[in-house]
Design a protein that fits this description.
single chain; 492 residues; alpha/beta; TIM Barrel; Nucleotidyltransferase, domain 5; 2 domains; eight-stranded mixed sheet; 17% strand; binds FE(8)-S(7) cluster; binds iron/sulfur cluster
């Protein structure tokens, strides 16, 4: 393991933010970290809330550029059955299908967290998100959190649950200082719930059909209300299942907002017959990216919507979108370096400076005075740090920003395959990339070869490495302004 996988500090100190070359979104201009559009920033929130989310990569879109989470897979059992889940695979509440590499004891989990903290100064949150349900394994979940908190009190604790057992544990969650809880809520109508959950196990009894869905719904609402009453930040995850709850999620959104949910995260159903789930085997499809976005847009209230979820594995480690879990398998923990708090302190100083500089750069970016207002999508290749700092050929995902004269706002990410594998072009990956870039006008990356650049140009997509290592939003705005200025000049 080396620090080379950490957001390279050298790459995030290159640009002079005072350089007046970039452009203005509607963000506040006091130099504090704010976010255009899709998520709330420091100026939009009470200080106590901002303090809780400023380094949580899931609760703050801005934070996900700088901070990492890790999940410890200590919770194998579950108390309900979802039609999109097969026990052989990770919990779909918080993870994409794929077996958990290692289930851990509480002690092993604490050791692993120490090893990751020693190597990854971005680590700010440890979550328990399966592979079953955290609260169906409550004693082990809380024991694990106890050990982690005793060893690393600065790390935030985060818990994910289907909500069935939640009302029984709210007091303990609050007493342990767990400030972030995710509940997966896919319905508030038991008729719809019965199409998603064939059974639950509750009070020593198995319940099925409408009764099961009714109990689950009531327990979820009770747990949500009890948590928010205690000031705990609750994120609600909803799995979008076309034809079952796609129209219904507006109602879910209203219900959870009215009960004080901090964020709503609508995630696409992942359905594949190979995963052996009921939905996979019966042909229930997941939504297209456009269907997902249409539902997200219909919910409004951008600051209350999470759009940057990566549907992580229950043993994920690293920045969202990357998985460094293999570096920290149990057999490697004996080689782990001791945790050095100085490394993290230095990283936090860099992040604070970077956030301020990035904001200034965004504010200084200039739009032409008169432009035709056509929102465009720009795809960014990034390894984190809020900068365009990844080679096109190394990208396994692109962050998608929508750019208008009001600024650049993150709207989603799209996965792709690496174009460059072992130093050679992977031509097959280009088809995946072109499909992932549907509707995108430009790709901004740290470097791109002539061949892929031409392939993209043939598809009408401009690829540029002109903004290598610059800040994302400011570069996207500048690219947009320049393009519009050229259009105006051409039509004059
Ligand atoms: Fe993990 Fe979940 Fe906590 Fe984040 S993940 S328990 S809130 S620390 Fe985040 Fe991953 Fe999406 Fe979950 S990107 S699947 S929302
Ligand atoms: Fe699977 Fe999670 Fe649903 Fe339990 S709550 S059945 S582990 S997806």
């Amino acid at each position: 393991m080396t620090d080379s996988n950490i957001v390279p500090l050298s790459s995030i100190t290159r640009v002079d933010p005072a350089k007046p070359r970039l452009s203005g979104c509607s963000a506040k201009s006091n130099g504090k970290a704010t976010s255009c559009g899709s998520s709330a920033g420091q100026d939009d929130l009470p200080e106590a809330v901002w303090n809780k989310i400023q380094d949580h990569p899931c609760y703050s879109e801005d934070a996900h550029h700088y901070f990492a989470r890790m999940h410890v897979a200590v919770a194998p059992a579950c108390n309900i059955q979802c039609n999109y889940c097969n026990r052989k695979y990770d919990c779909s509440n918080e993870s994409r299908p794929g077996v958990v590499s290692e289930k851990l004891s509480a002690e092993q989990a604490a050791l692993k967290v120490m090893a990751v903290a020693a190597e990854v100064p971005q680590l700010s949150v440890v979550g328990i998100a399966g592979p079953g349900d955290a609260l169906a394994n409550a004693p082990k979940t809380f024991h694990t959190f106890d050990l982690i908190h005793a060893a690393l009190p600065h790390v935030k604790l985060c818990l994910s649950t289907n909500g069935l057992a939640l009302p029984d544990h709210v007091e303990q969650i609050a007493a342990m200082g767990i400030d972030h809880v995710t509940i997966t809520i896919n319905m508030v109508d038991p008729e719809i719930g019965a199409q998603i959950y064939p059974w639950i196990f509750f009070r020593h009894k198995r319940w099925e059909g409408l009764e099961a869905a009714q109990i689950l719904h009531e327990r979820q609402m009770e747990g949500l209300e009890a948590l928010t009453a205690k000031g705990i930040l609750v994120k609600v995850n909803s799995v979008l299942i076309p034809g079952i709850n796609d129209q219904h999620l507006v109602e879910v959104n209203k219900a959870v907002r009215s009960r004080g949910a901090f964020l709503h995260n609508v995630m696409p159903l992942i359905s594949d017959p190979a995963h052996g789930t009921h939905f996979g085997l019966t042909g229930q499809r997941g939504p297209t990216p456009n269907e997902l976005r249409a539902v997200q847009d219909s919910l409004g209230g951008d600051a209350k919507l999470m759009r940057h979820c990566r549907q992580c594995r229950a043993d994920a480690v690293g920045l969202l979108g990357e998985d460094r879990g293999a570096e920290f398998s149990l057999d490697k923990l004996t080689e782990a370096k001791p945790y050095d708090p100085k490394k993290r302190e230095m990283y936090l100083e860099v992040v604070e400076r970077e956030r301020g500089d990035r904001q200034k750069a965004k504010e200084m970016a200039q739009m032409p005075e008169k432009i035709e207002e056509t929102p465009v999508l720009v795809a960014i290749a990034t390894k984190g740090g809020g900068r365009i700092n990844q080679h096109f050929g190394h990208a396994t995902e692109f962050q998608i920003f929508e750019v208008t004269s009001a600024g650049a706002k993150f709207i989603s990410h799209r996965r792709t395959d690496k174009y460059c594998v072992g130093g050679t072009d992977n031509s097959d990956a280009m088809a995946t990339t072109i499909a992932a870039l549907e509707g995108v006008a430009a790709v901004l990356c740290a470097k791109i070869g002539d061949k892929p650049k031409q392939r993209l140009a043939d598809m009408g997509i401009i690829a540029s490495d002109q903004y290598a290592f610059e800040y994302i939003e400011a570069s996207a705005i500048t690219w947009y302004a320049t393009r519009n200025a050229c259009d105006v000049a051409a039509s004059a």
